[in-house]
Amino acid sequence: MTFELQAQDPGSNARAGKVTTAHGVIETPIFMPVGTAATVKAVHQRELKEDIQAQIILGNTYHLYLRPGLDILEKAGGLHKFNGWDKPILTDSGGYQVFSLSGTRKIIEEGVKFKSHIDGSTHLFTPENVMDTQRTIGADIIMAFDECTPYPCEYDYAKNSMHRTHRWLKRCCERFDSTEGKYGFDQTLFPIVQGSTFRDLRTQSAEYIASMNREGNAIGGLSVGEPAEMMYEMTDLVCSILPKDKPRYLMGVGTPANILENIALGVDMFDCVLPTRNARNGMLFTTQGIINIRNQRWKDDFSPIDAELGGYTSTFYSKAYLRHLIHAQEYLAGMIASVHNLTFYLWLVKQAREQIKAGTFAAWKNVMVEKLMTRL
Ligand SMILES: CNc1nc2cc3c(=O)[nH]c(N)nc3c(CCO)c2[nH]1
User: ipTM of this complex > 0.95?
Assistant: First the structure.
Protein backbone atom coordinates (compact mmCIF):
# COMPACT_ATOMS: atom_id res chain seq x y z
CA MET A 1 0.00 0.00 0.00
CA THR A 2 1.33 3.48 -0.85
CA PHE A 3 0.15 7.04 -0.04
CA GLU A 4 0.83 10.02 -2.27
CA LEU A 5 0.18 13.51 -0.88
CA GLN A 6 -1.21 15.61 -3.75
CA ALA A 7 -2.23 18.96 -2.20
CA GLN A 8 -2.27 20.80 1.12
CA ASP A 9 -4.83 23.53 1.91
CA PRO A 10 -3.12 26.88 2.68
CA GLY A 11 -5.79 27.84 5.24
CA SER A 12 -5.96 24.59 7.29
CA ASN A 13 -4.26 21.23 7.84
CA ALA A 14 -6.49 19.64 5.18
CA ARG A 15 -4.72 17.60 2.54
CA ALA A 16 -5.70 15.67 -0.59
CA GLY A 17 -3.96 12.43 -1.53
CA LYS A 18 -4.12 9.00 -3.11
CA VAL A 19 -3.88 5.60 -1.41
CA THR A 20 -2.98 2.73 -3.73
CA THR A 21 -3.91 -0.82 -2.67
CA ALA A 22 -3.97 -4.24 -4.35
CA HIS A 23 -7.65 -3.65 -5.22
CA GLY A 24 -7.30 -0.13 -6.55
CA VAL A 25 -6.90 3.52 -5.70
CA ILE A 26 -8.59 5.51 -2.92
CA GLU A 27 -8.69 9.30 -3.28
CA THR A 28 -8.49 11.07 0.07
CA PRO A 29 -10.20 12.58 1.99
CA ILE A 30 -12.57 9.63 1.65
CA PHE A 31 -15.69 8.29 3.38
CA MET A 32 -15.90 4.50 3.72
CA PRO A 33 -19.44 3.01 3.80
CA VAL A 34 -19.79 0.45 6.58
CA GLY A 35 -20.55 -3.06 5.29
CA THR A 36 -20.51 -4.88 8.63
CA ALA A 37 -21.82 -8.37 7.74
CA ALA A 38 -20.50 -8.52 4.14
CA THR A 39 -23.06 -5.98 2.92
CA VAL A 40 -23.58 -2.24 3.15
CA LYS A 41 -27.10 -2.68 4.47
CA ALA A 42 -29.79 -2.49 1.74
CA VAL A 43 -27.33 -1.42 -0.96
CA HIS A 44 -26.29 -3.36 -4.10
CA GLN A 45 -22.60 -3.52 -5.06
CA ARG A 46 -23.55 -1.97 -8.42
CA GLU A 47 -25.20 1.02 -6.67
CA LEU A 48 -22.13 1.39 -4.43
CA LYS A 49 -19.90 1.51 -7.48
CA GLU A 50 -22.05 3.48 -9.95
CA ASP A 51 -24.44 5.75 -8.00
CA ILE A 52 -22.55 6.25 -4.75
CA GLN A 53 -19.09 5.92 -6.35
CA ALA A 54 -17.69 4.39 -3.19
CA GLN A 55 -13.97 3.68 -3.40
CA ILE A 56 -13.53 1.48 -0.31
CA ILE A 57 -16.00 -0.19 2.08
CA LEU A 58 -15.69 -1.67 5.55
CA GLY A 59 -16.21 -5.24 6.73
CA ASN A 60 -16.07 -6.42 10.33
CA THR A 61 -14.05 -9.19 11.94
CA TYR A 62 -16.51 -9.76 14.82
CA HIS A 63 -19.55 -10.21 12.56
CA LEU A 64 -17.87 -12.15 9.74
CA TYR A 65 -16.13 -14.50 12.19
CA LEU A 66 -19.48 -15.37 13.75
CA ARG A 67 -21.44 -15.42 10.46
CA PRO A 68 -20.88 -16.73 7.74
CA GLY A 69 -17.70 -17.93 9.52
CA LEU A 70 -14.12 -18.25 8.34
CA ASP A 71 -14.51 -21.61 6.60
CA ILE A 72 -17.09 -20.20 4.17
CA LEU A 73 -15.06 -17.04 3.57
CA GLU A 74 -11.92 -19.06 2.90
CA LYS A 75 -13.78 -21.46 0.55
CA ALA A 76 -15.12 -18.39 -1.31
CA GLY A 77 -11.56 -17.09 -1.73
CA GLY A 78 -12.03 -14.20 0.70
CA LEU A 79 -14.57 -11.43 1.23
CA HIS A 80 -13.98 -9.72 -2.15
CA LYS A 81 -15.04 -12.95 -3.91
CA PHE A 82 -17.84 -13.67 -1.44
CA ASN A 83 -19.71 -10.36 -1.81
CA GLY A 84 -18.41 -9.42 -5.25
CA TRP A 85 -16.92 -6.07 -4.18
CA ASP A 86 -13.66 -5.95 -6.16
CA LYS A 87 -12.39 -2.58 -4.91
CA PRO A 88 -10.55 -1.98 -1.60
CA ILE A 89 -11.96 -3.29 1.69
CA LEU A 90 -10.93 -2.35 5.25
CA THR A 91 -11.88 -4.54 8.20
CA ASP A 92 -12.09 -3.40 11.79
CA SER A 93 -10.51 -5.81 14.24
CA GLY A 94 -13.55 -6.67 16.33
CA GLY A 95 -12.57 -5.16 19.68
CA TYR A 96 -15.00 -2.28 19.38
CA GLN A 97 -17.85 -4.53 18.24
CA VAL A 98 -17.30 -6.99 21.09
CA PHE A 99 -17.96 -4.05 23.42
CA SER A 100 -20.86 -2.58 21.52
CA LEU A 101 -22.63 -5.87 20.79
CA SER A 102 -21.68 -8.74 23.04
CA GLY A 103 -23.58 -8.66 26.34
CA THR A 104 -20.93 -10.47 28.30
CA ARG A 105 -17.24 -9.94 27.74
CA LYS A 106 -14.09 -9.97 29.84
CA ILE A 107 -10.77 -8.32 29.09
CA ILE A 108 -7.68 -10.30 30.10
CA GLU A 109 -4.03 -9.81 29.10
CA GLU A 110 -4.45 -12.65 26.57
CA GLY A 111 -7.33 -10.88 24.80
CA VAL A 112 -11.12 -10.55 25.16
CA LYS A 113 -13.52 -13.34 26.12
CA PHE A 114 -17.08 -12.79 24.87
CA LYS A 115 -20.39 -14.43 24.12
CA SER A 116 -21.80 -14.29 20.60
CA HIS A 117 -24.79 -11.93 20.30
CA ILE A 118 -26.18 -14.47 17.80
CA ASP A 119 -26.18 -17.78 19.71
CA GLY A 120 -24.51 -17.08 23.06
CA SER A 121 -21.49 -19.27 22.27
CA THR A 122 -18.25 -18.24 24.00
CA HIS A 123 -15.16 -17.05 22.13
CA LEU A 124 -11.74 -15.53 22.80
CA PHE A 125 -10.29 -12.86 20.51
CA THR A 126 -6.56 -12.38 20.84
CA PRO A 127 -4.21 -10.11 18.87
CA GLU A 128 -2.86 -13.23 17.14
CA ASN A 129 -6.14 -14.87 16.15
CA VAL A 130 -7.64 -11.55 15.05
CA MET A 131 -4.70 -11.08 12.67
CA ASP A 132 -5.23 -14.61 11.32
CA THR A 133 -8.97 -13.91 10.95
CA GLN A 134 -8.34 -10.73 8.97
CA ARG A 135 -5.83 -12.61 6.81
CA THR A 136 -8.65 -15.07 6.01
CA ILE A 137 -11.23 -12.34 5.35
CA GLY A 138 -8.69 -10.83 2.97
CA ALA A 139 -9.28 -7.09 3.49
CA ASP A 140 -6.68 -4.79 1.92
CA ILE A 141 -6.36 -2.75 5.13
CA ILE A 142 -6.74 -4.47 8.50
CA MET A 143 -6.92 -2.89 11.94
CA ALA A 144 -4.90 -3.74 15.04
CA PHE A 145 -6.70 -5.40 17.97
CA ASP A 146 -7.31 -2.63 20.48
CA GLU A 147 -9.57 -1.60 23.29
CA CYS A 148 -11.67 1.43 22.41
CA THR A 149 -11.40 3.10 25.81
CA PRO A 150 -14.93 3.89 27.02
CA TYR A 151 -15.93 7.53 27.59
CA PRO A 152 -15.90 8.97 30.16
CA CYS A 153 -13.34 7.06 32.21
CA GLU A 154 -10.83 7.65 35.01
CA TYR A 155 -7.29 8.66 34.07
CA ASP A 156 -5.83 5.42 35.50
CA TYR A 157 -8.25 3.29 33.49
CA ALA A 158 -7.38 5.17 30.28
CA LYS A 159 -3.64 4.82 31.03
CA ASN A 160 -3.81 1.07 31.73
CA SER A 161 -6.10 0.50 28.74
CA MET A 162 -3.73 2.42 26.45
CA HIS A 163 -0.70 0.43 27.60
CA ARG A 164 -2.59 -2.85 27.09
CA THR A 165 -3.57 -1.71 23.58
CA HIS A 166 0.13 -0.94 22.94
CA ARG A 167 1.14 -4.43 24.18
CA TRP A 168 -1.55 -5.97 21.96
CA LEU A 169 -0.30 -3.88 19.02
CA LYS A 170 3.19 -5.35 19.41
CA ARG A 171 1.66 -8.86 19.30
CA CYS A 172 -0.43 -7.88 16.23
CA CYS A 173 2.68 -6.65 14.37
CA GLU A 174 4.69 -9.79 15.24
CA ARG A 175 1.87 -12.09 14.05
CA PHE A 176 0.99 -10.04 10.95
CA ASP A 177 4.63 -9.62 9.86
CA SER A 178 5.24 -13.38 10.19
CA THR A 179 2.25 -14.43 8.05
CA GLU A 180 1.32 -13.96 4.40
CA GLY A 181 -1.90 -12.97 2.59
CA LYS A 182 -3.92 -16.07 1.68
CA TYR A 183 -5.20 -14.98 -1.72
CA GLY A 184 -2.13 -13.72 -3.54
CA PHE A 185 -2.37 -9.99 -2.74
CA ASP A 186 -0.76 -7.81 -0.07
CA GLN A 187 -2.61 -6.56 3.01
CA THR A 188 -1.55 -3.80 5.37
CA LEU A 189 -1.99 -3.32 9.13
CA PHE A 190 -2.97 0.04 10.69
CA PRO A 191 -2.25 0.64 14.39
CA ILE A 192 -4.76 2.66 16.45
CA VAL A 193 -4.06 5.60 18.78
CA GLN A 194 -5.91 5.55 22.11
CA GLY A 195 -5.53 7.64 25.29
CA SER A 196 -9.14 8.74 25.72
CA THR A 197 -9.44 12.52 26.27
CA PHE A 198 -6.19 13.01 28.23
CA ARG A 199 -3.60 15.10 26.35
CA ASP A 200 -0.55 13.41 27.88
CA LEU A 201 -1.90 9.91 27.11
CA ARG A 202 -2.91 10.90 23.57
CA THR A 203 0.60 12.29 23.01
CA GLN A 204 2.22 9.11 24.38
CA SER A 205 -0.04 6.87 22.28
CA ALA A 206 0.41 8.88 19.07
CA GLU A 207 4.19 8.83 19.51
CA TYR A 208 4.20 5.08 20.14
CA ILE A 209 1.94 4.37 17.14
CA ALA A 210 4.03 6.63 14.88
CA SER A 211 7.18 4.77 16.01
CA MET A 212 5.75 1.50 14.63
CA ASN A 213 6.25 3.01 11.16
CA ARG A 214 3.28 1.19 9.56
CA GLU A 215 1.81 2.24 6.20
CA GLY A 216 -1.13 4.12 7.72
CA ASN A 217 -2.35 5.13 11.19
CA ALA A 218 -5.77 5.28 12.86
CA ILE A 219 -7.20 7.39 15.65
CA GLY A 220 -9.50 5.42 17.94
CA GLY A 221 -11.34 6.07 21.18
CA LEU A 222 -13.32 9.01 19.79
CA SER A 223 -16.91 9.49 18.64
CA VAL A 224 -17.87 7.59 21.80
CA GLY A 225 -20.02 10.31 23.36
CA GLU A 226 -17.42 13.01 24.02
CA PRO A 227 -18.33 16.62 23.08
CA ALA A 228 -17.40 17.48 19.48
CA GLU A 229 -14.94 20.14 20.73
CA MET A 230 -13.09 17.42 22.68
CA MET A 231 -13.01 15.17 19.59
CA TYR A 232 -11.48 18.03 17.57
CA GLU A 233 -8.94 18.88 20.29
CA MET A 234 -7.72 15.27 20.51
CA THR A 235 -7.68 14.83 16.72
CA ASP A 236 -5.71 18.07 16.28
CA LEU A 237 -3.15 16.95 18.88
CA VAL A 238 -2.76 13.43 17.43
CA CYS A 239 -2.55 14.67 13.82
CA SER A 240 0.29 17.00 14.85
CA ILE A 241 2.27 13.93 15.97
CA LEU A 242 1.34 11.28 13.35
CA PRO A 243 3.58 11.39 10.23
CA LYS A 244 2.31 13.55 7.36
CA ASP A 245 3.34 11.02 4.72
CA LYS A 246 0.96 8.31 6.00
CA PRO A 247 -2.86 8.31 5.76
CA ARG A 248 -4.75 9.10 8.99
CA TYR A 249 -8.04 7.26 9.64
CA LEU A 250 -10.42 8.64 12.28
CA MET A 251 -12.61 5.71 13.33
CA GLY A 252 -16.39 5.96 13.58
CA VAL A 253 -16.71 9.59 12.47
CA GLY A 254 -19.18 11.06 11.85
CA THR A 255 -21.78 13.64 10.94
CA PRO A 256 -21.10 15.66 7.76
CA ALA A 257 -19.97 18.60 9.93
CA ASN A 258 -17.65 16.35 12.01
CA ILE A 259 -16.09 15.04 8.79
CA LEU A 260 -15.38 18.51 7.35
CA GLU A 261 -13.97 19.79 10.67
CA ASN A 262 -11.68 16.76 10.96
CA ILE A 263 -10.56 17.04 7.33
CA ALA A 264 -9.43 20.57 8.26
CA LEU A 265 -7.39 19.03 11.10
CA GLY A 266 -5.58 16.61 8.75
CA VAL A 267 -7.70 13.44 8.72
CA ASP A 268 -7.85 11.47 5.44
CA MET A 269 -10.22 8.51 6.03
CA PHE A 270 -13.60 8.20 7.79
CA ASP A 271 -16.24 5.55 8.46
CA CYS A 272 -19.61 5.86 10.17
CA VAL A 273 -22.93 3.98 10.27
CA LEU A 274 -24.86 7.28 10.46
CA PRO A 275 -25.75 7.62 6.75
CA THR A 276 -27.16 4.08 6.52
CA ARG A 277 -28.56 3.76 10.06
CA ASN A 278 -30.31 7.16 10.01
CA ALA A 279 -31.59 6.53 6.48
CA ARG A 280 -33.67 3.63 7.76
CA ASN A 281 -35.56 5.97 10.07
CA GLY A 282 -35.99 8.70 7.48
CA MET A 283 -33.20 11.15 8.33
CA LEU A 284 -31.76 12.40 5.03
CA PHE A 285 -28.61 14.46 4.53
CA THR A 286 -28.99 16.75 1.52
CA THR A 287 -27.05 19.56 -0.15
CA GLN A 288 -29.64 21.96 1.34
CA GLY A 289 -29.53 20.58 4.90
CA ILE A 290 -31.06 17.78 6.97
CA ILE A 291 -34.56 16.46 6.15
CA ASN A 292 -36.75 14.24 8.31
CA ILE A 293 -38.70 12.78 5.42
CA ARG A 294 -41.35 11.38 7.77
CA ASN A 295 -42.49 14.96 8.40
CA GLN A 296 -45.94 16.00 7.16
CA ARG A 297 -44.45 18.89 5.18
CA TRP A 298 -43.05 16.54 2.49
CA LYS A 299 -46.43 14.84 1.91
CA ASP A 300 -47.02 16.56 -1.44
CA ASP A 301 -43.52 17.72 -2.31
CA PHE A 302 -42.92 15.96 -5.66
CA SER A 303 -39.46 17.48 -6.15
CA PRO A 304 -36.47 15.08 -6.31
CA ILE A 305 -34.91 14.00 -3.01
CA ASP A 306 -31.85 16.11 -3.93
CA ALA A 307 -31.59 17.43 -7.49
CA GLU A 308 -28.07 18.80 -6.86
CA LEU A 309 -26.54 15.45 -6.01
CA GLY A 310 -26.80 13.60 -9.31
CA GLY A 311 -26.96 9.84 -9.22
CA TYR A 312 -30.10 7.88 -10.13
CA THR A 313 -31.70 7.48 -6.67
CA SER A 314 -31.46 11.08 -5.46
CA THR A 315 -32.94 12.53 -8.65
CA PHE A 316 -35.37 9.81 -9.89
CA TYR A 317 -37.47 9.56 -6.69
CA SER A 318 -39.49 12.39 -5.11
CA LYS A 319 -39.62 13.41 -1.43
CA ALA A 320 -43.35 12.63 -1.34
CA TYR A 321 -42.81 9.14 -2.72
CA LEU A 322 -40.02 8.33 -0.26
CA ARG A 323 -42.11 9.71 2.62
CA HIS A 324 -44.94 7.38 1.55
CA LEU A 325 -42.61 4.36 1.40
CA ILE A 326 -41.20 5.08 4.87
CA HIS A 327 -44.67 5.40 6.41
CA ALA A 328 -45.74 2.23 4.60
CA GLN A 329 -42.62 0.50 5.98
CA GLU A 330 -41.76 -0.67 2.47
CA TYR A 331 -38.34 -2.33 1.96
CA LEU A 332 -37.68 0.11 -0.89
CA ALA A 333 -37.74 2.99 1.63
CA GLY A 334 -34.55 1.89 3.38
CA MET A 335 -32.93 1.06 0.06
CA ILE A 336 -33.61 4.50 -1.47
CA ALA A 337 -32.72 6.43 1.69
CA SER A 338 -29.47 4.48 2.22
CA VAL A 339 -28.26 4.96 -1.35
CA HIS A 340 -29.19 8.65 -1.15
CA ASN A 341 -27.36 9.32 2.14
CA LEU A 342 -24.23 7.47 1.00
CA THR A 343 -24.32 9.37 -2.33
CA PHE A 344 -24.40 12.57 -0.25
CA TYR A 345 -21.45 11.51 1.96
CA LEU A 346 -19.30 10.59 -1.04
CA TRP A 347 -20.35 13.82 -2.80
CA LEU A 348 -19.29 15.80 0.29
CA VAL A 349 -15.78 14.33 0.46
CA LYS A 350 -15.43 14.75 -3.32
CA GLN A 351 -16.25 18.45 -2.91
CA ALA A 352 -13.71 18.65 -0.09
CA ARG A 353 -10.99 17.06 -2.26
CA GLU A 354 -11.69 19.58 -5.06
CA GLN A 355 -11.65 22.51 -2.62
CA ILE A 356 -8.34 21.37 -1.14
CA LYS A 357 -6.79 21.06 -4.61
CA ALA A 358 -8.10 24.57 -5.45
CA GLY A 359 -6.66 25.94 -2.17
CA THR A 360 -10.08 27.23 -1.07
CA PHE A 361 -11.11 24.51 1.43
CA ALA A 362 -10.88 26.54 4.68
CA ALA A 363 -13.46 29.21 3.72
CA TRP A 364 -15.69 26.70 1.89
CA LYS A 365 -15.70 24.43 4.94
CA ASN A 366 -17.04 27.15 7.26
CA VAL A 367 -19.89 28.00 4.89
CA MET A 368 -20.68 24.34 4.24
CA VAL A 369 -20.77 23.35 7.93
CA GLU A 370 -23.38 26.04 8.60
CA LYS A 371 -25.46 24.88 5.64
CA LEU A 372 -25.22 21.18 6.57
CA MET A 373 -26.57 21.83 10.03
CA THR A 374 -29.72 23.49 8.65
CA ARG A 375 -32.84 21.48 9.51
CA LEU A 376 -35.31 21.82 6.64
C1 LIG B 1 -19.11 5.32 16.18
N2 LIG B 1 -17.93 5.67 16.90
C3 LIG B 1 -16.84 4.88 16.89
N4 LIG B 1 -15.75 5.13 17.65
C5 LIG B 1 -14.89 4.11 17.41
C6 LIG B 1 -13.62 3.81 17.98
C7 LIG B 1 -12.96 2.65 17.58
C8 LIG B 1 -11.70 2.26 18.18
O9 LIG B 1 -11.15 2.95 19.08
N10 LIG B 1 -11.13 1.10 17.78
C11 LIG B 1 -11.70 0.31 16.81
N12 LIG B 1 -11.06 -0.82 16.47
N13 LIG B 1 -12.86 0.63 16.20
C14 LIG B 1 -13.53 1.78 16.59
C15 LIG B 1 -14.80 2.09 16.01
C16 LIG B 1 -15.44 1.21 14.94
C17 LIG B 1 -15.13 1.84 13.58
O18 LIG B 1 -15.97 1.39 12.59
C19 LIG B 1 -15.46 3.26 16.45
N20 LIG B 1 -16.69 3.76 16.12
Answer: yes
Please answer whether residues 97 and 90 qualify as being in contact, where contact means their C-beta atoms are separated by less than 8 angstroms: no
Distance of CA 237 to the CA centre of its chain: 20
Report how far residue 299's alpha carbon sits from residue 53's, in angstroms, rounded to the nearest whole number: 30
Cis peptide before 247 (omega within 30 of 0): no
pLDDT of residue 102: 77
Tell me what pLDDT residue 95 has: 85
**pLDDT value of residue 85:** 98
Domains present along the chain, CATH in parentheses: 2-271 (3.20.20.105)
**Which residue in 141, 133, 244 sits closest to 190, CA to CA?**
141
Report how far apart, in Å, the C-alpha atoms of 206 and of each of 78, 236, 248, 254, 283 are.
32, 11, 11, 21, 35
Binding region for substrate: 92-96, 146, 194, 221
Find out whether the beta carbon of 172 lies less than 6 Å from any atom of ligand 1.
no
Cα dist. 219→216, 239, 251, 260, 292 in Å?
Answer: 11, 9, 6, 16, 31
Give the chain's residues under pLDDT 70: none
Calpha distance 255→258 (Å, rounded): 5
Residue-level pLDDT at 103: 74
Atom of ligand 1 nearest to the CA of 145: 12
Please report how many Cα atoms fall inside a 13 Å half-sphere around the Cα of residue 346, on the Cβ side: 27
Q: Is the CB of 145 under 6 A from ligand 1?
A: no
